[in-house]
Design goal:
The protein contains eight helices and eight strands, in the order ββαβαβαβαβαβααβα. By secondary structure, the chain is an alpha/beta fold. The protein has an eight-stranded mixed beta sheet, with helices on both faces.
């Protein structure tokens, strides 16, 4: 990663089991509650929670520091300039130490209580990545319609589930394969589709945003869609993953 970043890290066990990566931009009001719910859902399985502060202009940095003071598993990675959700996630994945890593947003639309089920699904199916398949009326009808049309195009282009979003669990192989990809500006979901991984999906009901509003306006949504489709249709398919040996 090339962006300058400042990191605060607490001591952590050498043998780590589960990391949680959270990109943060204007999420001051939800960080403490997200941390509480993640800890309640995972207990001792959580070894590391990395909040990637994407040069957020609000009080997100102070909110992250407050939970880090109370929980040594919490780390803050502060980016020197805003680089967008997908680059922020890649920065966080680069820090992940767990055998498994969860990626989720900070806005509480995706329930932390679903993480154990995603992990269980990965173990049962042998998948490298399990997406939380988006369900529910969590946005306006128009945004839901355009989002679903885009995701169907994405699924056709790179093979990810049509309900895939930025809430998923993945193993070390997935992180390494995605990090090795080079090409257009990043779009993590499509990169997973192009990385030659075994992918699964589990339906999860999303909530409406409890506070504030999305920082993704129409122009940003269009730019994100273009990046996703560039990865889906302009790159040759990645080679199939090696066969698993029993």
């Amino acid at each position: 990663m090339t962006e300058n970043a400042e990191a605060t890290r607490s001591a952590a066990p050498t043998e780590a089991w589960l990391s949680v990566i959270v990109p943060v931009f204007e999420n001051e009001s939800t960080i403490a509650e997200l941390h509480r719910r993640v800890c309640a859902s995972l207990g001792e399985r959580l070894c590391q929670m990395v909040f990637v502060d994407d040069a957020s202009p609000d009080g997100s940095r102070a909110a992250i520091d407050a939970v880090a003071e109370a929980d040594r598993r919490v780390e803050r990675l502060s980016l020197a300039r805003n680089c967008g959700q997908h680059r922020a996630v890649l920065h966080g994945m680069d820090r992940a130490r767990g055998r498994w890593t969860v990626v989720m947003d900070a806005d509480l639309q995706d329930p932390p209580e679903a993480i154990p089920a995603l992990i269980e699904r990965a173990g049962a199916s042998g998948a490298d990545v399990v997406f939380a398949g988006r369900r529910g009326s969590y946005e306006s009808p128009l945004r839901l319609l355009t989002s679903r049309l885009f995701k169907r195009l994405l699924a056709r282009g790179c093979g990810v589930p049509p309900d895939a979003g930025m809430f998923f669990v993945c193993n070390r192989s997935a992180i390494e394969r995605v990090a090795a990809l080079a090409g257009p500006p990043p779009f993590v979901v499509a990169m997973i589709g192009r990385a030659g991984l075994q992918i699964d999906s589990l339906p999860v009901h999303r909530s409406t945003r409890p506070s504030g509003r999305s920082s993704y306006g129409s122009a940003m949504r269009l730019g994100s869609a273009v990046r996703g489709l560039m990865w889906s249709f302009r790159r040759p398919p990645a080679p199939s993953p090696p066969e698993r040996r029993s």
